[in-house]
Amino acid sequence: MSGEKIRLNTEWLCDCGGCHVALVDLHEKILNVLEAVQILKCPVLTDEKGYPEADIGILTGSVRTEHDRHAAALMRKKCRTIIAFGTCAVYGGLHGAGLAHSREEIMDHVYRHSPSTRTDFIPDNSVTSLEKMVTPIDEVIDVDLYLPGCPPHPHFIFEGLSALIENRTPKAGQESVCAGCRRTMVKTETSAIKEITDGVPDNATCFLSQGYICQGSVTLDRCLAPCPNHGMPCSGCAGPTMQVLTEPTRDIRTEISERMSRLTKIPYDTVKDHLERSAKTHYAYAMASKMIGNKPTFLIRKWIAEGEAR
Length: 310
Ligand code: SF4
Ligand code: SF4
Ligand code: SF4
Fold this sequence. Notes:
Elements: E1 6-12, H1 18-24, H2 29-36, E2 37-41, E3 54-60, H3 66-78, E4 79-85, H4 87-91, H5 103-113, E5 145-147, H6 154-165, H7 226-229, H8 242-246, H9 252-263, H10 268-277, H11 279-282, H12 290-293, H13 300-309
Parallel strand pairs: 1-2, 1-3, 3-4, 4-5
Helix pairs in contact: 2-6, 9-10
The structure holds iron/sulfur cluster (3 copies).
């Protein structure tokens, strides 16, 4: 490094704000970052309305409006390196589940029926209208570095930023969440799928062995497995593993069904049927991604419609 600080822009698109909060969640390590970085634009820290020339551009959230497309394009134009930061930016994130509903249904629910957000009127054209679908940002602009996680874990944020600052490749493995999980997969006599509220799971045994759905084996480890190590099954918030993404006929439901039916007495088709019925939950974080959506086995709209009709 020449001694000059790395110039950083951040921008948020369609998101919850959590990824920007995660940036400050680096605790004392943020001081190391700030020593090397000059923040030019950051919606929560600066009053910069434009898009200054920068070395690194962090984009959080997915593309759902004309503003999002415009902002993403300007960030790409002005920043040498673009980071897709967070699962929304990488795969569309939780609000990708909006693809199961029409824009009108979503607006109606949010502004007329949701007790916490209702206003009893639908915003007019003075508010940027929602596009039909949520789009991950690399379907709109080129991305140089992907940092999935909802939000990304401080360990991986620091490693990603340090690598860019030091001009090296980030160290990040391809293991699933299971690699960091302390539970053991064992064969059991479990014969039925359980909800997490059913009984008290044993702390040493894999959730799948006990009949609870855990997405750890199909989820990329970008979090160091906090959930299964603290009593909760993984819900897949960091997005799918490379195997799930790249194998055309494998996906979240086939992988989990195979593993769970091997570990228990629950038949493969019972698990698969359960996962299809609750597809909006189990595919929530990545269903907007073309890599998942274009799979030959993927019938998410059908599964969701059938699940909601039951
Ligand atoms: S990835 Fe998660 S934390 Fe980040 S903006 Fe999306 S919903 Fe919020
Ligand atoms: S499936 Fe879940 S509980 Fe089982 S080993 Fe993997 S992360 Fe742990
Ligand atoms: S264990 Fe799963 S749900 Fe929990 S943070 Fe990691 S990826 Fe997200």
